[in-house]
Amino acid sequence: MRWCLRQRRSFRTAELSCVECVRRRDVSWRRIGAFNDRVDRVANALGLTFVDPNSWIEDGDFARDGLHLNGGGKRRLGQLYARVSGLDVGGSAESKM
Predict the structure, then answer these.
(1) pLDDT score of 88
(2) CA 16, CA 60: separation in Å to the nearest integer?
(3) What is the CATH architecture of 16-96?
(4) Any bridge partners for residue 51, and if so which?
């Protein structure tokens, strides 16, 4: 939280976003969800945009190890981040999938 406050002071006019933890095969959904809930509360308290990548990625977006994203998953998250940051000039990310 201190880091977020420090960034907020350093970049007063910037729109900062906070990205939640992406699910993994080796960590339970319940544990990741509890962590993301805490991060969401902090982000809201600091006025940050909270981005949920788990609503955009699917099981097929992970490499065989279940921990890392494959090319399709990275592309999908790139589209989400472009959309959130306002860099998505070619239409919505949803229409590209």
Answers:
(1) 65
(2) 29
(3) 3-Layer(aba) Sandwich (3.40)
(4) 19
Distance CA 54, CA 96 (A): 18
In DSSP terms, which residues pair with 19 in a beta bridge?
A: 51
Beta strands in 13-80 (DSSP E): 17-19, 49-51
Say what the pTM is.
Answer: 0.64
Strand partners, 50: 18
User: For residues 84 and 76, is the Cβ–Cβ distance under 8 A?
Assistant: no
48 compared with 5, residue with greater pLDDT: 48
> Domain map of the chain by residue range?
16-96
Q: Which of 97, 93, 91 is nearest to 81 (CA)?
A: 93
- What backbone torsions phi and psi does residue 4 show, to the nearest 5 degrees? -60, -45
Mean pLDDT on 20-33:
87
